[in-house]
Design goal:
This protein has nine helices and eleven strands. By secondary structure, the protein is an alpha/beta fold. It has one domain: 3-Layer(aba) Sandwich (Rossmann fold), CATH 3.40.50. The longest helix has 15 residues, at 126-140.
Amino acid sequence: MRTLLVVCLLLLSACPAAWAQAKPLVLPLWAGGAPGFESRRNEPEQAKDYWVKNIHNPSITVFLPPKEKATGAAVVICPGGGHRELVYNAEGVEPAQFLTSIGVAAIVLKYRLSREENSPYSLDKHPRQDAYRAMRLVRSHAAEWGIDPNRLGMLGFSAGGEVVATVAYADGKGDAQAPDPIDRLNGKPNFQLLIYPGPLGIPDAVDSSAPPAFLLAANNDVCCSPPIVKLLQAYRLAHVPVEVHLYAQGSHGFNMGHRSKLASLQAWPQRMADWLADNNFLDTNPAHHHQE
């Protein structure tokens, strides 16, 4: 047993990336706590089984791909949970693991929950504030993390898709006069990936500045298939690139698909990977990318 332990320690010491995968970097969105709620920053989060709650110090957890696989693309992931909890493992960590396997840096956002019991947060303000700050924080570390700031997208599941929608259709420009240089950066995603997104924040129309979109849901999802049908029509009218997968079955909350018995749902993450490749987001040639 001692020999085995020594061998494992030697392997880990020889491969620092193994440590990085085991312990991803966690950063608070604001070093001193969320604006207006600094006094709550030290209140402990609650985590059990599949969920995380009681988020008062919103943060990002950074999963970087191995350097030999890294494409420079990155995605901020917003898990769902009805704004009452975060389905953190199945809609945060597992998507991050898939994305890093195809060379995409994955950043999981823990945003504040406005529908949690006794929540002091507003649905139309604080998740949006957290999403913008996460995007800007990632762009501020782009060089350090090997990320192309012009290939930074967002992936949202269910309520997390609503969070993405709150920032995807505005210009995202930072405040040039902000004391914090992070707040001067652009917070708009370069593309978005919405998986059975909720209806909140989904616009009736989009213009040509809307980020290219990959949209996916099950047709028998009463809540969250209508938003992607609505977005599809809006995107087509605006002549913005969009791809939609509307599966006949699956209902709501199938996560990354591997817990489903349906072959189509088990394979959906590969459709997302194909879309990223087809639209040059995995292409390391800067000449192929739109520069903002």
